[in-house]
Amino acid sequence: MTTKTPILGLNRFEFNDTQSIDTQLASHIRRRHRTQGENSVLFYKQPIEMVSARGTWMTDSYGNRYLDMYNNVPSVGHSHPRVVEAMTQQALLLNTNTRYLFSVLENYSEALLETFPDDLSNIIFTCTGSESNDIALRMARMVTGKQGIIVTENAYHGNTSAVMEVSPSGHKRQQLPPYVKTIAAPDPRTLPMGISLAEKFAEDVRQAALSLESAGYGSAALLVDTIFSSDGVFADPVGFLAGAVEVIHQFGGVFIADEVQPGFGRTGSHYWCFQRHGIVPDIVTLGKPMGNGYPMSAVITRPDILATFNDETEYFNTFGGNPVAAAVGMSVLNVIKDEGLLENASRNGLYLREGLSCIARDCTSISAIRGAGLFNGVEFTCPEAGGPDTPLVQTTINRLRDEGVLIGAAGTFGNILKIRSPLCFSQEDADFFLDKLGRVLKGLRPT
Amino acid sequence: MTTKTPILGLNRFEFNDTQSIDTQLASHIRRRHRTQGENSVLFYKQPIEMVSARGTWMTDSYGNRYLDMYNNVPSVGHSHPRVVEAMTQQALLLNTNTRYLFSVLENYSEALLETFPDDLSNIIFTCTGSESNDIALRMARMVTGKQGIIVTENAYHGNTSAVMEVSPSGHKRQQLPPYVKTIAAPDPRTLPMGISLAEKFAEDVRQAALSLESAGYGSAALLVDTIFSSDGVFADPVGFLAGAVEVIHQFGGVFIADEVQPGFGRTGSHYWCFQRHGIVPDIVTLGKPMGNGYPMSAVITRPDILATFNDETEYFNTFGGNPVAAAVGMSVLNVIKDEGLLENASRNGLYLREGLSCIARDCTSISAIRGAGLFNGVEFTCPEAGGPDTPLVQTTINRLRDEGVLIGAAGTFGNILKIRSPLCFSQEDADFFLDKLGRVLKGLRPT
């Protein structure tokens, strides 16, 4: 059995590497370590000091430019002028809390909720995806009266105390509480003969729910990132989630769709990734790209669930739903629409996957290309042994950095290149990336 | 025994009041309720639709102006142009996460840490005070190996699952876990003969710690808001916290200073309220005024505590410490310095308390005036019965609203006017407020 390598520990600068890097950067790293501790994580063997970014491109302190295939937060493009303008104008006018009324918030709430199925008509504004998932867990336990939560093996849902309990990939010493059960990621290649992925995934949920029931916890929720980002990106076949949702409902639990990473049109065909599966979650959590970098997030749910939550607790979030967040959020929705970013994600995502398939023909290490829209994964496996080729991915990431491409890894073994550029990613960007990736992999091919 | 009225339930619009308010406002309230639920709290019997704010003043949709004696978030003044400018310039340039280096963050970290005692040299950036307190609780438990937390009876420290457990004032149905013990607020009027407040408060902590020890939990931390905001504002005598900190250390626990409300110079004499007590906490949490409304917060601690935390968990906060937050935070520090806001808080806070004392001479309902700098409380008690006069405070708050003053309440019974304007509060503002408060109280005086 392969030892688990936590994905968050991948692609990081190691402290004792300082000797090998130039004086200016080393001095900057020392300042970071002095204030944020030596465990403060920096990307790459050679960390990067960034100074500016626009659209899909970032520039470092030496003037080097990088195509951003990593950051899903500045989703409509780095430093988007319309978003900055909306933020500035509102900040000059009014920024306060939701104990007062301000129409910018009502306008935004209604516009955002319009992208959801009718039943999901209520919203709580928060500041981070972690805060949203923390609320979702409490809601699930309140409405079901149960404790157990089912998540995937390498799930990551955030960083509060409660959310860390359901985020196995964030633990340095793997230890989940007994009321958290993990199931395998929905990998279509692990199916027994004659069983569909939908059936397999639903059966895994059933077994976990049975085990939680016999342990006396019951199943409060099935909580999944709807594209299974940290598990390694699993998008297909469309609809495979439906059976699992039915099962959790049969056990009296709710289904929480974590859309923090795949939401806001990233998967191209729909605004929300759960829609690809033809399901309606009980609770949806949003975050990262919601404000294109402005700290904002939300929980979307049905009125009956919100009412139960409000009956138990007085929830108030100082910054959540403030007028600046609302103005920023509205500008993001407008940019997504006006610039046709869903269509762009579909079109250029497909173009990208086609290009990746071409590269795969010459690279026996690539064992799978998966994804939807502009959230994609490329899995690397040792051609002979068949196991995850984590070192190849690590080397590729660092070589691509030197070639001007920022990219990350996913999966329990970190052997999946995680590809998720801003949604304004163009065909030219795709060509640049594919060219660099092809060259880097050619250079690394065993001779 | 008086029944506990949760403070957060005070001063709120009640849903069935819609009939009594004008059509435009009623329609706005209905929109809010439709999206955020009918339990979404709005201030005042007549909620206010705000449209703009500058300095210490806010303006509603009818053009009415209000002196803001409530909001401690826009601490250097609503819509401060220097803060907005810093935010805009940085947002146009670069906004990304801390896995990259950017000097604006190192500059800000160093400037902020300079305001702390030398031992407190490490920082984790977060987005909300709740996230900071959630981390502080985890750190405390990790470094001590204990579970118990000691807080004051009406404490509020935030809204995550873990932090709600130590926030008795946020519970609608009071039920604390067995590992959370509450102690009385440090009220100098409740002392047995011959005992100082420092001795009484330390003894209360000792009793709570003993009880946690005998229950098998031990004491991980004493966690207090250093000005005891939600308990009703207790600032004096200077130094009274020192004995309690000694006691928690004797029991092997840490002292967490929650500076989310009293920090960043609000108390005038010092940057941090704990400094008034001549103590050095093990962990300090920051929030609300840190970005003058931009969602940002932090945990400050010693390197040994951060190292233990990092050893257990991989903490990453997507928005925390981003370049825009850093630029905003730096501009707030600069404005506090350049505009002499600590001195202003000291001077005009004193002026305010003197004016309140004059009003108290003619108002037998005022039983105490407490506070430091621009964080003050005025307690109202029934002159005959001696109990908390919550209705008088509620009426006063709503009358002041009609007179153009925004103000809130604190304390277990909500009978304390909580006075905390932005730090740019002027003597003219004080005169305006004192005049209005005096008139309102005269009008309400029993005849």
Tell me about this structure.
Two copies of one chain form a homodimer. Chain A is an alpha/beta fold and 447 residues long. Chain A has two domains: 7-76 and 340-444, Alpha-Beta Complex (Aspartate Aminotransferase, domain 1); 81-338, Aspartate Aminotransferase, domain 2, CATH 3.40.640.10. Chain A has 13 helices and 15 strands. Chain A has a seven-stranded mixed beta sheet with strand order 4-10-9-8-7-5-6, sandwiched between helices. The two termini of chain A are 28 Å apart. Residues 1-9 of chain A have low confidence and may be disordered. At the A-B interface, helix 1, strand 1, helix 2, helix 3 and strand 4 of A face helix 1, strand 1, helix 2, helix 3 and strand 4 of B.
Which terms summarize this structure?
2 domains; Aspartate Aminotransferase, domain 2; 7-stranded mixed β-sheet; 4-stranded mixed β-sheet; disordered N terminus; homodimer; globular; Aspartate Aminotransferase, domain 1; alpha/beta; 447 residues; 13 helices
In short:
By secondary structure, chain A is α/β, with parallel strands linked by helices.
Mean pLDDT of chain A comes to 94
Instruction: Give the C-alpha Rg of chain A.
Output: 22 Å
Largest interface: A-B, 99 and 98 residues
Return the CATH topology of the largest domain in chain A.
Answer: Aspartate Aminotransferase, domain 2
Largest sheet data of chain A: 7 strands, mixed
Strand order of the largest sheet of chain A: 4-10-9-8-7-5-6
Q: Runs of chain A with pLDDT <50, length 5+?
A: 1-9
Number of strands of chain A: 15
Helix proportion of chain A:
25-40%
Number of domains of chain A: 2
Q: Quick one: overall form of chain A?
A: globular
